[in-house]
## 1
Amino acid sequence: MKAIYKNILITATATLGFTATFAQAGKKSNTEKDYYRIVTVPVPEGVELEVGGLTTLPNGDLGVSTRRGDVYIISNPYQLNGSLPYYKKFATGMHEVLGLAYTGGNFYCVQRGELTKLIDKNGDGKADIYETVYAWQLSGNYHEYSYGPVVMPNGHLMVNLNVAFAEEWWRGKSFKPWRGWSLDITPDGDMSPYATGFRSPCGQGIVDGKYFYSENQGDWIGSGYIMQLDKGDFAMHPAGLNWAADPSSPVKVRTEDIYALVDKRFNDPEGKIEDRDPKRPYKTLAEVSAIIGKGYKAPAVWLPHGVLGQSTSALIQIPKDDKFGPFAGQVLVGDQAQSRINRVFLETIKGQYQGAAFAFREGFESGVLRMAWGADNSLFVGQTSRGWGSTGQKIFGLERLVWAKKTPFEMKAVRAMPDGFEIEFTKPVNKQAAADPDNYDITGFTYKYHPVYGSATIREKNHIVNAAIVSEDGLRVRLIADSLREKYIHEIKVNNKVVSADSSFTLLHPVAYYTLNNIPDGAKLNVPKRKAKMAHNMEGMNMDMPAPAAAKATTGAALKKNQTVKPASWSTIDQTITLGTKPGLKYDKLELTVKAGAKVKLTFTNNDDMPHNFVVVPQGQAIAVGELGTKLGLQAVKLSYIANTPKILFNATLVGPGSSQTIYFVAPKAGKYTYVCTVPGHFYVMQGTLTVE
Ligand SMILES: [Cu+2]
C-alpha cells in the first residue's frame, strides 16, 4: 500500500511538547504528560482505521481490526529510526470487527454474528480462508454489538454479546439466544454459555489468570464498572436471563428473581414507557445482593459516571515488572466518550474482588476503545468515535502511551482496612501534612438498581476521618474513619497540603474511588472520635463542587434557567416548540426561530439511546460551557453536566432515553444563540442555532 501521510509527524511532535498548566508557585510542574507521553502512530491516507480490535503479534507487529470490517497488520508501529510504519491489509469485507486476538499462529476476530478464524495458507500476509468457528443469531437490532475474543488461560476464546436496545422499550432486550452472555468457545467451535447479566460488555481481559469484563451505564446499570466473572455468574442486567433455564445454562438466577426486587410497576418485563416515573422506588446494590445470593456478582470496581468517564471500554493488566512505571500488576480501563484511560488497583477481601479507581491519562485524539502492549513496553491505544462522540475529536486514531521513566507522585494503591483505608503513595509524603486528618475527605455513595437508564449518585454520606497515621517510611497513611458502608463506593480526596517529602509535588490525581464490597475483619485501632471538620478546612480541596445550575429565582417574577412549570404570571403562551434528538449526537432540528420577548414553551424529547440535555448560550460559547460541565466531578450527573455560569440563558436538564422535559422561557434580545448538549464528548458536535428575531 502506498502510504501518504498528512501532517501527522507534526502532530506527533506536538504531543511530546511540554505545558506546565498546573505548575504552582514553589512546586515543580506536575502534569500527566510529564510522566506518560502520547505518541501518534501515523495512519496512511485512505485507511479508515476505526479501531475495533487490537493485538500485538509475537514479532512486535500490530494487528488492528476495524469497525469497517478490515484487518490490518502494521509493521514498525514504533517508528524506529524515524521511519514510518507500514500497513498491510490482511483481511477485508467482514461485519463490524470489534475484537481481534492472535493465538496458535492465527488471528481470531469477532464479527457481529460470528467468531471467525483468519487463515493465511500460503504465507503471503493475506488471509485466504475466513473460517466460521462459531456463529450466533441476530435479531437485526443495531445495539447487538459483539466483542472478543479474549484468549483464556486454557486456550478457549471468550466472546461477549450485547443486548438489543431501542425506542419503544427503553430497556435492553435479549431476542436471540445468548445475547447478554459471555460464551466460552474452544478453537474447534464447541460453545458453552459462561455467564450473563450484561448490557454492553465492551471490554474483556485476563487479570492474574481470572476473567474480567467491563460494563457500560444504561438501564439497570447506574455507572460503568469492571467485574470478575466465574462460570455461572449473573452480573446486573436481567435481559440475558431469557436463556437461563436452557439445559446448557450454568446460571441459577431467574428473570422473576430480579423483577421481584423492584417496584411492582416494573413487573411487566415489556417495560411500558409510562412506568418510567422518576419518583418510583428503587433498590440499591447493597440491598439487592443481600437478598439474592444465587450467584449475583457485584462489580469489583465502579468507575463513577461523569468523573472517570462515560463509556467503559477495554481493560488490560499492566505487566508485573517496572517497565511501565510504578503500577505493575494494576489494571488500565479505557473510556470511549472521554478519550481517557483510568487506573484500577484490585485486592481480594473475603473472596471477592474490590479496589480503587483513579484517573490516569486523558487527552487521546479520539474515543479510546482498545489497548494492547507493544514489544517496547509502551501501550497501543486504538480509538474510534463515529456515531458515539468523544472528547478527542478525531473520527479515529491510533496512539501509543509511553512511560517517560519518571515516577509521578500518586496514590499507588488504596486498601480497605477494618477501620478505614490505607493509602500507599509512590513516593514518601511530608509526614507532618499527611498526619493531619483534616487533609482528607471521605464520602460514600451508591447508585440505583432499577430498569431506568443510569443513575445519579445517591445516599451520599460524609465519613469523619478520626486519625491519619503515617508509616515510618512515609509511604503509607492509614485513615481511621467512621461507619463505612459495604457495597458502597467511597470517594477519598486528599487535599493539596499533602505534598511529597521534599515538598516538590502535590498529588498528580488527588482523588480515589474505592468500591468497598467487603470490610476486612481484624483489629480496629482505638482512636478518639472527632467532630466534623469546619468548612474552612476544605479550602485546599482541589475539586470543590459548584452550586447547582438550576438556581432559584432571585425575585418572584424572574424565571429559573430551568423553568419546568408554567410561570404563574403568564396568561398566554406566544410560541410552542418541540425539539427531539436523533442518533449520532444530533438534535432533530438544527435551527429554531423565536420572536424577541416572546413567551415560549419548549418540549425537549429524547428518542436516542443515551441521555442528552439542551442548553442555550450566546454564539461562540458552546464549547466553553461544555468544558465547564466536564469539571463538575461526582455531582456531574446530578447537575446534568450544566455548570453554574452566567453564560447559560436557559436550559433543559439531562433527559434520559424515551423521556422528555418541557421548559418555559422568555426569548432574549434579537440575535443568534447556540443550543448545545453539554454531555462530555457531545458538545463539540451536538449543537443547533436559535435565531431570535
Ligand atoms: Cu448529548
Note: DSSP finds five helices and 44 strands in the chain.
## 2
Amino acid sequence: MFNFHTHHTDDVPCILNCSPDDFLLRQDHERADVAFSVGLHPWNVSADWQEKVEKMRSVTTSPRVWTIGECGLDKVRGDALSVQIEAFRAQIAIAEAVKKPMVIHCVKAFDELLALRKELTEQCHREGRAAQPWVIHGFRGKPEQAKQMMAKGLLLSFCHLYHVETLRLVFSLYKNASAEEGRSRVSPFFLETDDHPFSVHQIYEQVSHHLGVDVSLLDSLCDPRQTIFHQKAF
Ligand SMILES: [Zn+2]
C-alpha cells in the first residue's frame, strides 16, 4: 500500500507534501518510508512567489524529495491565473532540471494545463529527451476528461472523492492496454488521502469495492515505486 499524496503521515509508505521550510524541519524526523514532495501550491502564489520558488532549488535535489508539487493552476482560488502560470512554469523547469515527477493541483484550468504540457513535450522532443511524468492529484473529473488527460500522457491520482465511473474507465483502459502489451509500463492510477483525516487503507477498501478487485491487486497496481519511480526503494 502506498499513499501517493498526503499532508499527514500514518503507518503507510507515502509522499508527504511540504513547503521547502517544512521539509528542512521534518526531513530528519520522519520514518524512513516517508518520501517528500516539495512545491509552491497555487493558493500560496503571491507577489513574492519567485523568492519562494528559489528556496525550492537546493531542497529538491535531496534524494528524500521524490516529487515536485503540489503545484499547478486554480481558477477558483488564489492569485491571477497569469501569475499562477508563471510560478508553475518556474516549477516545471525545476522538475525537469532535477528529473522528478510533478504532483499537480488543477481546478477548472485543464485547457491551460494541457497547453503547458504540450509546450513541455515539444521542447523535450527537440532536445531528444522525455518529459517528467505529471500526476494530477485528487482527480474528480468525469470519464471524458480523464480520457482526454490520459491521451496526453498525464497520470491520475484519486482521493476518496473520485467519480466512480471515471475510476472504472481508467481501470478498464489500463486492463485493455496491459492485455495488448503484457504488463503495462505505467501504473493505471495512484491513491491518496490528500489532507483528509483518515487512513489510505480506507481509500484502498473503497476502490476495491467499486472495481470488484482485491486490495492486494491494487497494492501492486497503485504503487508508484513499481512505475514512475523505477523500482526506487526507501
Ligand atoms: Zn494536497
Note: Helices lie at 20-26, 49-59, 81-98, 110-126, 143-151, 164-181, 200-211, 215-221.
## 3
Amino acid sequence: MSSLPGLKSFHDLHIWAMSTTEMALTVHVVAEDGCGLNDLIEKISGELRHRFLIVHSTIQIEAPR
Ligand SMILES: [Zn+2]
C-alpha cells in the first residue's frame, strides 16, 4: 500500500472483522503535496478491496508536516 503514488505514509491503521466474511478498516494517510485527494482515496480503497477484500474502509487524509 505504501507504493501508491501520492501516498507519503500512513499510521493508526486498524482492521477488524465485522462478520465472518466482512472486514472493516480505518487508517490515517499522509498525502504528498499537490496530489489529487479523491484519486488517492479511490486508489487506496480499490487496493484494499482487491488485495485484502476489505469493503468498508474509512480513510482520514492528513497534510504533510
Ligand atoms: Zn493521524
Note: The chain has a mean pLDDT of 91.
## 4
Amino acid sequence: MTPYMPVHWTGATLAALTLLHALGSGSLIASPALSPSSLSAAPNAQTLYIGCATTPSVLFMETATGRITRSTVLPSPASGLTLRGDGSMLYVTCPAPQSTVCEIDTSTGRVVRTMEVGHTASDPVLSPDERSLFVCARFDNRIDQIDLASGRVMRRLIAPREPVSAAVTPDGRHLLVANHLQAGRADADVVRATVTVLDLRTGGMVKELELPNGSTLLRDLRISPDGRHAVVVHQLARFHLPTTQIERGWINTSAMSLIDLQTLDLLTTVLLDNINAGAANPWAVAWDTDGSRIMTTHAGTHELSIIDFPALLERIHRLGSGGLPDETLSASRTLADIPNDLAFLVGLRQRIQLTAADRGPRSLVVAGGRAWIGNFFSDTLSVIDLDDPDSPVRSIALGSCSEDPAERRGEAYFNDATLCFQGWQSCASCHSNDARVDGMNWDNLNDGIGNPKNSKSLLLAPDTPPMMWLGVRADSAAAVRAGIPHALFTVQPEEVATALDAYLRSLSPMPSPHLEQGRLSLAGERGRKLFFSETTRCANCHRGDLYTDQKQHRVGTIGRYDAPADRFDTPSLVEIWRTAPFLHDGSALTVKEVLTSSNPDDLHGQTSHLTPQEIEDLATFLLSL
Ligand code: HEC
Ligand code: HEC
C-alpha cells in the first residue's frame, strides 16, 4: 500500500483559505485548529472531503498521498456533508441561527449555490432519488426538507428534541431521526431520548422508537446497505443510581441500538463497553460497503469498534429463539438482558486504539477498503486497513496547529474519557455539547445521597458563584476540582483543572431560536416588561445581565427528595431555551410550568394574577434570553 506522505499546504490552498497555514515541510505560521468533524468519500475513493468545525472550510484530500489538493471557503465552519451518488456535488451544512447549506461543484471546488435552513444545521442526507436534501435543524427541533430543484425548504418535519442525525430508508418511505436529548421531565421513572420515524408521504410521525430507559446523547444513525437495519449509537445512563461507583458502567454505559426496518421496531440495544473498560462517547457510525461490519468511533476513548454484524444478528436471534447462550462470556439469558450485558459483544467486535496523535474521533467514512476517521482535537485523520484491521493504525496530520490555547486543551480534557477510571465517561457525558446539559437528573454526592438534581449547563458558571443548585461549591474552580475525583474517579495534575477553567470561561451564549432576526419578538417585548415589573418581582432575584442575584432562596419548589430547609441558588436564565427540563429536580417540563403549576402559591415571583396570554409572553421572553 502507498505510504502516506506528510501533508504540505500548497500555494493554491493558501490562496483559497484566508488563513495562515504551514508552508513547506513542517515549518509553521500561526494556524487555527481545523477540527475535522465530517467526512465523505468520492465514489472512486480517490478523494476525501473533510468538513472542518473550527475553520470555515472543506478540504479535498487525495487518498493515495494524503495531500490536500484543494480547499473551499465556506460562510462558516462545517457541521456535516454529503455527496451526490455520482460524486458531482457536495452538500455542506454551515450551522448558525439561520444555517446555510453550500452546494459545491466537486470538479471546481466552487460553491455554486447556497440554501437557507433552520438553527444549527447538521447531517445533510439526500433522498434516494436525490431530489431532496434533508437537514437536521437542531435547535428548531425540526428536519428541513430542501427541494433541490428550487433550492428552497419545501417541508418542515417535527422531531421532539435536538435532532442531530437522520437517514432515509432506501425505498424513500421513511425518515429516521436521532434525537440527541430526552424531551420529558427528568424526575420520571423512565427518561429516554427517542428515534423518531417519519412517513415521508404525509410528513407525519409514524412512531417514537423507545430506546431503553436512560438512553441519551444519541449521535449518528445509519442504515445498512441492504436497507434492512438501522443503527444508532448513544449513551445509556444509569441515572436512577447514586453516582458512587463508576466501574461496570454504574453511571454511564455506551450503547448501540439496532432497528429492524421491516417492522420499524427496536431489535435490541447492545453495550459497547467491556466489563473492565468503558468505550465512552460513541459518536460516528458507518457500515462496511457490503453490510458485513458496523463501525463506530469512541470519541472519549479514541478508539474504533468493528463489529461483525451477521454474527451479532445470529447471536441475537439464537437468544430470541430460546437457544442457550454460546460459549462466550455473555450473561444474557433472554433478549431483555442484552442492554445490561457488558460481555455480549465478546468475540464479535474488535476494539482498535488509535495512535497517541489521534484525539477525539468524531467522523468516519469507509472508502477503498479503509476506515477513515476524522479526529476533532488533533487535526488528524486515522486510517485503518479493513482487510487487515490488526495492522498499525496510520495517522495523517491535516495541518499543524501551532497554537494550543488553554481553552482548547480544556475542551479536549472535558471530552476525554481517558482521564476517567477505565474510560467510562467524560465531563461531556453529562454536560453534552459545549458543556451544556443532558436533560437528566443525577444523584451526585456533593449534597448528600438520595436527592437527585437536574444537570446544569456550565455556560457562565465562572461568572455566577456559588455553584450547584444548593450553592454547595464556592465557585466553578472549586466545582471543577471536585468534579475530577467525583465524576472521573481519578487524580489529575493541576494543569488539567486550569485548562478546564479556561474552557469554561471561553463558553459564550448562542442566540435563541425564539428571536426574530436576532431581536425580541413583540410577544417577547411584552414579556420583558412583565419580567421587570413590580407586579411579578422576577428581577428581584433574576437580576443584572446574567439574571441572577447569586443568592439562595426558598421559592416553593421543595420536592419529595429535598430537605424541607433547602434553599436553591438563583439560576441564570441565559440560554434556558436549551436546558429543559427546569428547576433543581427537572420537575417542570416547560418554562410555562415553572410560572404556573410549579408556582401555585406565588412564592416564586408573582404569577397567579397573569392572564394566559401574559404567561405566554413572559415565557417567550425567557426563552429568548
Ligand atoms: C454523571 C453526570 C455528570 C458528570 C460526568 C459531570 N457532571 Fe458536572 N454536574 C452534574 C450535575 C447533575 C450537576 C448539578 C448538580 C447540583 O447542582 O447539585 C453538575 C454541576 C456542575 C457544575 C456546577 C454548575 C453550576 O452552575 O452550578 C460544574 C462546574 C460542573 N458540574 C463541572 C463538571 C466537570 C468539570 C466535570 C468533569 C470533571 C463534570 N461536571 C462531570 C452532572 C455531571
Ligand atoms: C425569591 C427569588 C426569586 C424570584 C422573585 C424569582 N425567581 Fe425564578 N428562580 C429562583 C430560584 C431560587 C430558582 C431555582 C428554584 C429551583 O430550582 O427549585 C428559580 C428558577 C427559575 C427558573 C428555572 C430555571 C432553570 O434553569 O431551571 C425560571 C424559568 C425562573 N426562575 C423564572 C422566574 C420568573 C419569570 C420570575 C418572576 C415571575 C422569577 N423567576 C422570580 C429565584 C427567584
Note: Residues 476-488 form the longest helix (13 residues).
